[in-house]
UniProtKB/TrEMBL annotation:
Residue ranges crossing the lipid bilayer per the database entry: 21-39, 45-63, 75-97, 171-189, 226-247, 253-281, 288-307, 319-352
Chief location bin: membrane
Gene from which the chain derives: ydiK
Compartment(s) of residence: Membrane
UniProt signal peptide: none
Membrane-topology annotation of the record: Multi-pass membrane protein
One of the Pfam families matching this protein, by short name: AI-2E_transport
Source organism of the structure: Methylobacterium jeotgali
Name of the protein described by the UniProt record: Transport protein YdiK
Keywords assigned: Membrane, Transmembrane, Transmembrane helix
InterPro entries according to UniProt: AI-2E-like
PANTHER family: BLR8064 PROTEIN, TRANSMEMBRANE PROTEIN
Family of the protein in this entry: Belongs to the autoinducer-2 exporter (AI-2E) (TC 2.A.86) family.
Length: 364
């Protein structure tokens, strides 16, 4: 029986090997670009899931040592993912309940505005200058019923319907992205050790030992940014929330929560405690407004000039100027996601620069 001869495989000559290497690189680049294009709508959700997994990594590792995972490793990742979901959903639920409670008051205010016009606020009568002119303008334009009716009818039904439709689309879109982020976070928790080992191997093969150093530096920058922005922002919101309560600011808990969110962005907290001071001025509490502004300035000054530089700069090994530029530039480029991406990129660039220049001493 005749046998089919097998082809003799000989080593490829160098030009052919180089051509195959170039083809492989082009194929990998094309597939990576295609994959990113397919996932482009979900990339922010994936990035948020990765940042949350990195930020909560030490806490998850501690819990994993305390309660070792079982065969399927489902319970602990599910509990951590559920906790993250509650952290985001609980404040939204409280805001929805508060809005539902005050919807009746808003409706009555709208009816009164259409019936009687908008009365002159007391704050205009207390202005140190131009008080008479401001009151006269208000009475001529807003205080009579016709002006209130005209103001309300500017919002026609078509505008309200379009606004509601667009708002509904945005809510559905954000909800889908948030759900996808939670699913991705669950699998990142569940496979954290395998993914971390694969990332280290990939970094070593692509960039050598320097790649692992850059990756670890970027992870450290995320930890430092979370500590310096999120935790410090929560502390600012809690302290100023207490100040709001004793100063008599309306809805101190809500304004304290808004202060905590705004404080995660440098120079964002003054917008909220400035609003609280304006509310107190409108109510005639000038002394309380001064106290709120003074307390806000002191708290934000200490946080921005002492606490944050120590937490972020000490972890990322970056001068705080570069941290600040990374945060502001990241927010400008990527929104809230840039709060964490910006310092991570700056940390990687500074590390590469120090390796390239052979600098061992870190600038102050």
């Amino acid at each position: 029986m005749d046998t089919i001869p097998r082809p003799v495989i000989t080593p490829a000559d160098p030009p052919r090997a180089r051509g195959q290497g170039v083809a492989r690189v082009l194929l990998v680049v094309a597939l990576a670009a295609l994959g990113l294009w397919i996932l482009r709508a979900f990339l922010p959700a994936l990035a948020w899931a990765l940042i949350l997994a990195i930020a909560l990594g030490p806490l998850y590792a501690r819990a994993e040592r305390r309660w070792p995972p079982g065969r399927h490793n489902v319970l602990l990742p599910a509990l951590f993912t559920l906790a993250v979901a509650l952290v985001f959903l609980a404040p939204l639920a409280l805001l929805a309940v508060q809005a539902a409670r005050e919807a009746h008051d808003v409706l009555e205010l709208a009816r009164g505005l259409e019936r009687d016009g908008l009365p002159v606020p007391d704050v205009l009568t207390r202005l140190p200058f131009l008080s008479a002119q401001a009151v006269a303008w208000w009475q001529a334009n807003l205080a009579h019923p016709a002006a209130g009716s005209e103001l309300l009818h500017r919002f026609d039904n078509g505008s309200v319907i379009d606004l509601s439709r667009n708002l509904g689309k945005q809510i559905v879109h954000r909800s889908v992205l948030f759900g996808f982020c939670l699913v991705a976070l669950f699998f990142l928790f569940r496979e954290r050790e395998a993914l971390a080992a694969q990332a280290l191997v990939a970094a070593d093969r692509l960039f050598g030992p320097r790649g692992e150093r850059v990756g670890r530096q970027m992870v450290a920058s995320v930890h430092g940014t979370v500590d310096g922005l999120v935790l410090v922002g929560l502390g600012e919101g809690a302290i100023l929330g207490v100040v709001y309560f004793f100063a008599g600011v309306p809805h101190p808990v809500l304004l304290g929560a808004l202060t905590a969110v705004a404080a995660t962005i440098p120079f964002g907290a003054p917008l909220v405690f400035g609003l609280a001071a304006v509310l107190l001025l409108a109510a005639g509490s000038t002394g309380a407004a001064i106290v709120v502004v003074a307390a806000g300035i002191v708290v934000t000054f200490v946080a921005d000039h002492f606490v944050r530089p120590a937490l972020i700069g000490g972890t990322t090994k970056l001068p705080f100027l570069w941290v600040l530029l990374g945060i502001l530039g990241g927010v400008e480029s990527f929104g809230l996601l840039g709060l964490f991406l910006g310092p991570a990129v700056m940390a990687a660039l500074v590390l590469l620069w120090r390796d390239f220049t052979g600098a061992t001493r870190e600038p102050a």
